[in-house]
Write a structure and sequence with these properties.
The complex is a heterodimer of chains A (about 775) and B (about 240). Chain A has about 775 residues and is an alpha+beta fold. Chain A has 26 helices and 21 strands. Chain A has a nine-stranded mixed β-sheet. Chain A has a six-stranded mixed β-barrel with strand order 13-14-19-16-18-17. Chain B is an alpha/beta fold. In chain B, helix 5 packs parallel to helix 6. The chains are: A alpha+beta (about 775), B alpha/beta (about 240). At the A-B interface, helix 14, helix 15, helix 22, helix 23 and helix 26 of A face helix 1, helix 2, helix 3 and helix 4 of B.
């Protein structure tokens, strides 16, 4: 064993360049794999962990108490294998504008519940105590918030009961915004009863529906008014993580395949160019398996080192990346519990070196089969030429001889050229895929960005105190429109409304002014015109099972208003629906705009406009539009990964040229002795790889396009959006022509340095070695 | 056979040529002259610097000191490209182990030398066929080095060396890897070439080859010229 290790260490020293190539390749691949697998894992694991610990309900069902009373519901829930909490009475409570200070909307769902425990939906009471008496309330809040609102009164609308915050609990399942004692709920006029259910088989929506049907089959028709499954919640929470996962996985897989190809190429080359060395080892008494062991140990050193460094780099990169992915109202609930799991690190640390060793084993087995005498004598006899017909045709062509010689070289070592070609193909695939992705993301991020450049919020906070604008709504609108450089002003108000038939409220966004589309991209139907028309985001339509043309009913303050969905916009917020100002005013007549979006004339300075707006009314807070972070993150990470993989592909070419130059030292010396100039040697060597570059482009571009068609729709699906055609129609002739150069660029970049070295070979040294 | 006192122009002049590889001195101040049409044999024990001397004249290596002037051109001072052009147009090299390109047929190996000068493929092949014919291996022109005998390979190598009509033909142990019969044939070939005026410098261990082909013998030992004598050609 010591002898094997000693020979392997000597191989590492002797083949420093190839050892470095393997280490770099495995480092890049393992870093990409850690981030990709970590994200894939994080897209479900933290949710499952927290949901499991809380024994979250698989289905939250709401019933009409007039049709099914509490006793009857409790009896219905007693099914074999079904666990239930409740029935709990549920009320919708309107709060005053100051509710924002508590992080609450104007309308909240309050549930009467005796304690936070139970068989289902065990709440995490992380501050204060449970509400046990009338007049007390516990708020649903994540534990990373401060509990400094304890003891404060909830800002109710005039006439509402007085409720004091006595505790904070976190409920991942969002069964309520607040909880009160059962004795208190009556005073809040509950309109529904809530049943929280866990089923033995919760693997799919259809299973959950079947389970719910079993519970409700004895209840009167229409008693079930709304239901929501944990799968839609999970989908919502992990959607942003799932948006990143497909493309990161694509890069990770491409990285591993490139690593395998390059390792096979490096080891095959080492075996072929090291025949004499192998023969000497065998003559010294090494067994065939020991010689195989020497090669595997040599590969293991850079592979393990590269994987270890790559895994560490992946973990370091994942931390800030996950923080940006797990943000926002949905994914944010898990941002504390998200990290790269131990199993992801273990899989990468053990799996990738194992793949590398397996890749090395195949060519190394040739050593095992080869007699020692043959290994020692290899290289001293002329070898039979290869691709002879092609060489003859090239020799007779009108091409300059260095070019025609170079074009024939890849065919002299077809196995090595095939592996190099595969690395170039994958490099071009990556560049093509990333170019398509970046183009789509650029169009996605840029869509509607010219609609407005400044948002003027209709309030300002000073020392925690809200200051209102000095001008009334319409006057402020006109004032902002009259400021220098303003060309369009659109007011926007958001109001929380009930969605009849759903357990969850919706946010109705009313718009008024010059540009009702406000930068949203319409993917189906048309914009709203009438007072009973809305446009909804793709996510809202998918999650509520609604289609363009359907009718939904919105409810606010006991008033119901039927609305027709006339269009679909590219919007991943599943709660927002858009409408014109009259429809909003009909449901919420006192509602004022929360913001005014201002479009400036081309070339105007948004910061200067913001200063002017602030000077015009001290009660507003203008904010120039910031960059699109999602687009920046995806384009930035895709660019970085592409450059890394293109570099790795170029390293594969570099390695091949180094091996070819070593194998053909005698030929190069002969050609130079015949008068081939260093420039002609460089040209011949670069041409030999440029041929592979051209072939790589021809094969890699269709693969990259296929990868794009596979991954990008999945990314869009993950965030519940439909991408319009102009965003996905990215394969135009100029772009494809530019991509065709990618393979040649990778091949030339990888070949140039060793080709120039080949051009500078000292002939006498080369031929003396013979 | 052209001898030293024939009055022909001096084509090769070495003046105090030194070559060191690290601590090792391969040539320690060699001075000699070779005239056009001469056939000179360089002999000496292994490691005496014979091949190094040949490499200096061929422009395959540069001297550490002294000067190598061929046809008025100081080879040691040429840049890489100029040296390549010098080798291409003025020098024909014959190696002990032939150094044919395995992937090219005999014909294309020979034609390659002309194609590097920009000669069109068809024209280069035509001349290559003529040369192979003159050297008696035209029937093997489509064969590849791996299937040629040692003698045939060396004939192809000689044809390649002659392709651009070089001023100097340099042969480094041209019969060293051949059996006696093939060696004889190559000797005859070199003799014939010299007799039609080809200047020839021959490095060899083989005294018989030297006597047979060369008109002058230069003896080398420890990187120095230790003797020089005119030879009678034993035709």
């Amino acid at each position: 064993m010591r002898a094997v290790w000693r020979a392997a260490r000597a191989a590492v020293r002797r083949r420093r360049l190839q050892t470095l190539v393997i280490a770099l390749v495995t480092l890049t691949s393992s870093a990409a794999m850690v981030v990709a697998l970590g994200l894939l894992d994080a897209a479900s694991a933290p949710f499952d962990k927290v949901f499991g610990a809380q024994r979250g309900p698989h289905v939250v069902a709401e019933f009409d108490p007039a049709k099914a009373g509490g006793e009857r519901l409790a009896r219905a829930a007693r099914q074999p294998g079904v666990e239930a909490a409740g029935p709990f009475r549920q009320a919708t409570v309107e709060l005053s504008d100051r509710a924002m200070e508590f992080g609450l909307g104007a309308q909240i769902t309050v549930v009467g519940r005796a304690d936070p425990g139970g068989p289902v939906d065990r709440l995490d009471l992380w501050a204060g105590r449970w509400a046990t008496r009338p007049g007390e309330v516990v708020l649903n809040r994540q534990s990373d918030w401060t509990p400094d609102d304890l003891g404060k009164r909830l800002p109710m609308r005039p006439g509402g009961p007085s409720l004091t915050v006595v505790g904070f609990a976190f409920d991942l399942s969002r069964t309520a915004d607040a909880w009160v004692a059962p004795e208190q709920i009556g005073a809040l006029r509950p309109a529904a009863t809530q049943l929280l259910l866990r089923f033995p088989d919760a693997s799919s929506e259809s299973r959950l529906r079947a389970g719910l049907d079993t519970v409700t089959e004895t209840l009167p028709a229409g008693s079930l008014t709304a239901s929501r499954s944990y799968l839609s919640l999970k989908h919502q929470v992990s959607s942003s993580a799932r948006a990143y996962t497909p493309y990161l996985m694509a890069f990770g897989i491409l990285g591993v395949v490139v690593a395998v190809l390059i390792i096979v190429n490096v080891v095959s080359g080492a075996v072929i160019s090291g025949f004499r060395q192998i023969g000497v080892l065998r003559a010294l008494g090494y067994t065939p398996w020991q010689v195989v062991g020497v090669h595997l140990a040599w590969i293991a050193v850079p592979a393990v080192l590269g994987c270890a460094l790559g895994t560490a780099a992946g973990n370091a990169l994942a931390r800030p990346f996950f923080r940006s992915v797990f943000m926002g109202p949905d994914a944010g609930v898990l941002h504390d519990s998200v990290s790269v799991s131990g199993r992801v690190n273990a899989v990468t640390l053990l799996g990738l070196p194992a793949v590398c060793l397996l890749a090395a084993l195949v060519p190394t087995l040739r050593v095992h089969r080869m007699p020692a005498a043959r290994a020692i004598s290899a290289g001293s006899a002329p070898r039979a030429g290869r691709a002879l017909r092609l060489q003859r045709r090239l020799a007779g062509s009108a091409l300059p001889r260095p070019v025609s010689l170079g074009m024939g070289l890849p065919f002299a070592r077809p196995g090595r050229s095939a592996l190099t070609l595969a690395a170039v193909v994958l490099g071009v695939t990556t560049v093509t895929f990333a170019t398509g992705l970046a183009t789509t993301m650029d169009r996605f991020g840029g869509a509607g960005r010219d609609a407005y450049q400044v948002t003027v919020y209709a309030s300002r906070f000073d020392d925690g105190r809200e200051i209102e604008p000095r001008h009334p709504d319409r006057e402020l609108h006109a004032l902002l429109a009259g400021l220098p450089d303003a060309t369009e002003v659109t007011a926007r108000a958001d109001v929380e409304v009930g969605l009849v038939g759903s357990a969850h409220p919706a946010i109705l966004e009313g718009r008024r002014g010059d540009r009702l589309s406000l930068g949203d991209v319409l993917t189906a139907g048309r914009w709203m015109r009438g007072d009973h028309e809305i446009v909804a985001g793709s996510a809202f339509l998918r999650q509520n099972g609604v289609r363009v043309g359907d009718r939904i009913t919105l409810e606010k303050g006991g008033q119901r208003r039927p609305m027709r969905v006339v269009g679909e916009v590219m919007q991943n917020n599943a709660r927002v629906v858009l409408t014109g100002w009259p429809a909003l005013a009909a449901l919420a007549p006192d509602e004022r705009p929360v913001a005014y979006h201002v479009r400036l004339r081309e070339g105007a300075d948004p910061a200067a406009y913001a200063r002017a707006a602030r000077a015009a009314d001290t009660g507003v807070s203008p904010a120039p539009r910031g960059p699109d972070n999602l687009t920046r993150t995806i384009v930035g990470s895709a660019t970085a990964l592409t450059l890394m993989l293109a570099l790795v592909s170029a390293l594969g070419v570099f390695n091949t040229v180094v091996l070819n130059t070593r194998d053909r030292r005698r030929d190069l010396g002969t050609l130079k002795s015949m008068g081939m100039t260093p420039g002609q040697v460089t040209l011949m060597t670069v041409t030999s790889m440029a041929v592979l570059g051209v072939l790589g482009s021809l094969l890699g571009i269709p693969l990259g396009v296929a990868g794009y068609e596979l991954v990008v729709p999945r990314m869009a699906d993950a965030v519940d959006i439909t991408l319009p055609a102009f965003m996905t129609d990215v394969w135009r002739a100029p772009a494809l022509a530019a991509l065709a150069l990618a393979g040649v660029a990778i091949a030339v970049a990888g070949a140039l340095v060793p080709a120039r070295r080949a051009g500078r070979l000292t002939i006498a040294e080369v031929l003396r070695g013979e | 056979m052209v001898t030293e006192d024939s009055g022909n122009e001096i084509v090769v002049r070495l003046d105090g040529v030194r070559k060191e590889y690290g601590e090792t001195t391969a040539l320690a101040g060699v001075s000699l002259e070779i005239r056009a049409g001469e056939a000179v044999a360089v002999m000496g024990p292994s490691g005496c610097g014979k091949s190094t001397l040949l490499n200096m004249i061929a422009g395959l290596d540069r001297p550490t000191g002294g000067s190598v002037v061929v046809h008025g051109e100081n080879v040691g001072e040429c840049g890489e490209k100029r040296l390549a052009l010098y080798r291409r147009h003025r020098i024909g090299m014959i190696f002990q182990f032939f150094n044919l390109i395995d992937d090219l047929s005999a014909l294309d190996n020979v034609a390659l030398a002309a194609q590097l000068t920009g000669t069109p493929a068809r024209q280069a092949r035509r001349r290559a066929v003529e040369l192979l014919d003159e050297l008696g291996v035209a029937d093997r022109r489509n064969a590849y080095p791996a299937v040629l005998s040692g003698g045939e390979r060396q004939r192809v190598a000689v044809a390649r060396a002659l392709m651009n009509r070089p001023a100097l033909l340099l042969a480094d142990e041209p019969t060293g890897a051949l059996d006696s019969r093939a060696g004889e044939q190559v000797m005859d070939l070199l003799l014939d070439l010299n007799q039609i005026g080809q200047t020839l410098i021959l490095v060899t261990h083989d005294a018989r080859l030297a006597r047979r082909c060369a008109g002058r013998l230069i003896e080398l030992a420890d990187g120095r010229v230790t003797g020089e004598q005119a030879l009678e050609v034993s035709a």
